[in-house]
Amino acid sequence: MKVVFLLVPQLHLLDLAGPAQVFSTARDLGLDYELDYAAEQDDVPSAQGLPVRRTTGLPSLAPSDLVVVPGWRSHGFPQNGRLSVSVRTWLAAHHAAGGTCASVCSGADALGQAGLLDGRRCTTHHLLQDRLATRYPRAKVLKDVLFVIDDRVVTSAGIASGIDLALHLVATRHGPGTAAQIAREMVVYARRNGDDPQDSAMLRHRAHLSDVVHRVQDVIDARFTDRLPLRDLASTAGVSERTLTRLFGDATGLTPLRYQQLLRVERAEHLIGHGATVESAARAAGFEDARMLRRLRSRL
């Protein structure tokens, strides 16, 4: 999979570096990612004064590839960030061919210029949300969310939320265990909010400081389809079953079993959303049959 970062003059370095670090770490773990940095000029000035050099022009892309537009110093979307016709056409053509286009912070304006926000839900930095809604009245701008996904158009809020967005995309492709491993390597506590389709149990219940619980969650994330007895999880963490249950509840509000069930249901929902039958999705998520899946879906 190719991940192409579109470099716009006055881009914010963290908007670029955060998601790039996620995919770079994924590549270090052996996943097949190729990172490119595209621009119409060789050197692109950043908002922080450090110029960034492109590695490519506007490359040809496959439908499986991802384009990410970092935000830039906008002060409410003035002249900074105005895209040329060729860049707007390139973005729109990639999406029309089945590709995914994402943005961080004010980078949502680039997707708007390409016509990709019309009729879709989106978000941006909290200081720019009203301006984005005024600028693109056909878009539905959501507030108080970290990111939004609508028909392969992915928008995220302020600067650091690009990390959450990238972790979500990795989790969707490779599972929550991989995303959790990347988050731990980056020393970030993965978190997320948003509409239910984007909400992830793995990231939603990782915003705590208990290393014992993180270690147990690592095991559950990687093996959520397996049968995981409480005694084995407690042994992994080096604590008693009673202590683990107490620590896990304090950190997440859940038992280890309920956390595992949430991951299973989310995996099944993802498969069903991509055309799988309820029965096959249930088996792939670790359920013996669809009855338990249906029961948990109705509860959750």
TrEMBL record:
Q: Tell me the ranges covered by the HTH araC/xylS-type domain, including all copies.
A: 214-300
Output the InterPro entries linked to this UniProt entry. Answer: Class_I_gatase-like, DJ-1/PfpI, Homeodomain-like_sf, HTH_AraC, INH-QAR
Enumerate the UniProt keywords alphabetically. Answer: Transcription, Transcription regulation
Q: Which CDD domains match?
A: GATase1_AraC_1
Taxonomy, superkingdom: Bacteria
Q: Does the keyword Transmembrane apply?
A: no
* Statement: the UniProt record of this protein carries the keyword Transcription regulation: yes
Please give the coiled-coil regions recorded for this protein: none
What is any Pfam family matched here? HTH_18
> What name is this protein filed under?
DJ-1/PfpI family protein
Source organism per UniProt: Dactylosporangium maewongense
